[in-house]
Design goal:
The protein is mostly helical. The chain has a domain at 5-13 and 20-196. 57% of the residues lie in helices and 5% in strands. The chain is built from eight helices and four strands; from the N terminus they run E-E-E-H-H-H-H-H-E-H-H-H. It has helices at 23-45, 52-75, 78-83, 98-118, 125-149, 180-202, 210-226, 244-265; strands at residues 5-7, 12-16, 19-22, 164-166. A hairpin with a 2-residue loop joins strand 2 and strand 3 (19-22). Helix 1 (23-45) packs antiparallel against helix 5 (125-149). It is globular and about 55 Å long. A 1,2-diacyl-sn-glycero-3-phospho-(1'-sn-glycerol) binds at residue 144. Keywords: Cell membrane, Lipoprotein, Membrane, Transferase, Transmembrane, Transmembrane helix. It is found in: Cell membrane.
Length: 281
Amino acid sequence: MLQYIIWEVNPEIFHVGSFSVRWYGLLFALGFLIGMQIMSYIFKKEDKPVADTDTLLIYMVVATILGARIGHFLFYEPEVLLHHPLTVITPPFAGLASHGATIGILTGLWLYSRRKESLRTNQTFLWVTDRIVIVVALAGACIRFGNLMNSEIVGRPTDVPWAFVFMNNNEYAKIPRHPAQLYESLSCLVIFFILLWFWNRKKERTPRGSMLGIFLIWIFGLRFFYEYLKENQVPFEDSLPLNVGQILSIPAVLMGIYFLVRSYRSPVVIPIRDEPKEIES
């Protein structure tokens, strides 16, 4: 019977001189690239300008990275943000917070939707967020698997038969631990398929805000409980009744409940498309 899994995967795929390609960076990029292919498919099916996905990608990349970076320092290292704010945008870009990324993405999508609404493409904030959470879930699965490849965000010690021994992590003793990164990666993958199936059934008749609500409840509800299986990220969390990840997950779940309830109280209004007019010769 399997006692534990020895995990000593090299986080670096290859390097040329001082430049290296790492699994985390590759998976991070793949999450965006594959996600935008899915968004192009969604735009095409719902008769939206497919070219808009290029603009949407820019908004998403900037909003995700800035939100995740600022969130990390704001929630976990506020003294660094206060005294060295340029650290947010300077290499090596260590430290990304998923709660910060969520705030950044929602802010970016709000700015994007304001512009597109003004152009009469009917890409409202809730319409866009309901579709983007599908690909965000897939990206989350890729990123958390990247954390596994980096042997970071490790779980607490355990004796379960699927425990991992993270040989490349020198911060903690080399003893069997919960593969918390894998738990979260698989959870993101499950909600990706659920949301894709949900959208495929309803498409433009999807209740506005319903998929955003489901995403927030699932991701951050599970995140709250997964934190009990993970090592705290910073020392000050050891003195708290709930760690930072749990504290931040509570309002995210409540927001998800709000959007889900609201979505089924508001009817879906499908705009009537203008029929092409016949030109008299």
